[in-house]
UniProtKB/TrEMBL annotation:
It comes from Dactylosporangium aurantiacum. Pathway: Cofactor biosynthesis; tetrahydrofolate biosynthesis; 7,8-dihydrofolate from 2-amino-4-hydroxy-6-hydroxymethyl-7,8-dihydropteridine diphosphate and 4-aminobenzoate: step 1/2. It catalyses: (7,8-dihydropterin-6-yl)methyl diphosphate + 4-aminobenzoate = 7,8-dihydropteroate + diphosphate. GO terms for cellular component: cytosol. This is Dihydropteroate synthase. PROSITE patterns: DHPS_1 (PS00792), DHPS_2 (PS00793), PTERIN_BINDING (PS50972). Catalyzes the condensation of para-aminobenzoate (pABA) with 6-hydroxymethyl-7,8-dihydropterin diphosphate (DHPt-PP) to form 7,8-dihydropteroate (H2Pte), the immediate precursor of folate derivatives. The keyword Transmembrane does not apply. The keyword Metal-binding applies. Its EC number is 2.5.1.15. It comes from the Bacteria. One of its GO terms (molecular function) is metal ion binding.
Length: 299
């Protein structure tokens, strides 16, 4: 097992629009990275097609940047539990126009995809990171694309596509198993030619996890951080928050009303050592991180 020695230096390696400076500073930031979610899909669990149009998507992305987002994470295929898959051409048709517009505006972006072909075109168009919820399992060619591009790669813990994930939430010790399975993904990525310094880990909260699994991972996040890789946490608006905040009749809190809970998970994550958080509403999370930083500075 090869471990990274501190925060990495890398370039894109392929002449894309993203500068080495942007990628270097992203991982060397003294404060946690805030990744703003931009779903350009008609069936997202959180915004249900609200930003599927080019104009609305670009406007929302620029709003998030103005509120303090460091990265805009663009997704063209819903990964919510039970979601149907779309083909690569549909995914590209959704994301590429947005990427090109935002690249022209100098926005730092990641592409949320499990497909190597989509990642390759997105990197060429100007994204800085590949955020792969399958950790490279869905498309064996993803490691080659990332290695050739020289870009950072988020490896999320994953056990199967959306329609199957609920059946795969079986663990004896979720913390140990998630850590072990993520390190397997690291080993396979490195064996395929990806430098370990380019890897970021994500515990995959809510993906093939019951609520109790997600809470246990949140409580033991320092163990994941201790593996030695930057850790991205995506807890925003997820079902474990909705269930925790359920109404008297047992119905979960609506997704749009989970922001205060999301902000609480952001503070807990950065306090545990997370490199970054992936959120839908940027301003409140940025503010909360600033408060946490002020307290840390005053110690």
């Amino acid at each position: 097992m090869r471990r990274p020695s501190g925060y990495p230096w890398w370039g894109t390696g392929d002449g894309s629009k993203v500068s080495t400076f942007i990628q270097v500073t992203l991982l060397r930031r003294p404060s946690p990275v805030v990744m703003g979610v931009l779903n350009v899909t008609p069936d997202s669990f959180s915004d249900g097609g609200r930003y599927a149009g080019l104009g609305a998507a670009v406007e929302h992305a620029m709003q998030m940047v103005g509120e303090g987002a460091d990265v805009i994470d663009i997704g063209g295929e819903s990964t919510r539990p039970g979601a149907d898959r779309v083909d690569a051409r549909t995914e590209l048709d959704r994301v590429l126009p947005v990427i090109r517009e935002l690249a022209a505006a100098g926005v730092t972006m990641s592409i949320d995809t499990t497909r190597a072909a989509v990642a390759a075109e997105a990197v060429e168009a100007g994204v800085a990171l590949v955020n792969d919820v399958s950790g490279g399992l869905a498309d064996p060619d993803m490691a080659r694309v990332v290695a050739e591009a020289g870009c950072p790669w988020v490896l999320m813990h994953w056990r199967g596509h959306s329609r199957r994930m609920a059946d795969l939430a079986v663990y004896d010790d979720v913390v140990k198993e998630v850590c072990a399975e993520l390190l397997e993904r690291v080993d396979e990525a490195v064996a395929a030619g990806v430098a370990p310094e380019r890897l970021i880990l994500d515990p995959g909260l809510g993906f093939a996890k019951k609520a109790e699994h997600t809470w246990r991972l949140a409580a033991h996040l320092p163990e994941l951080v201790a593996l030695g890789y930057p850790v991205l946490v995506g807890s925003s608006r997820k079902s474990h928050l909705g269930r925790l905040l359920e109404a008297a009749d047992g119905s979960p809190r609506p997704t749009g009303d989970r922001e205060a809970a999301t902000i609480a998970t952001t503070v807990l994550s950065v306090a545990a050592g997370a490199w970054g958080v992936r959120v839908h509403e940027v301003r409140g999370n940025v503010d909360a991180i600033k408060v946490w930083q002020a307290v840390q500075a005053a110690r």
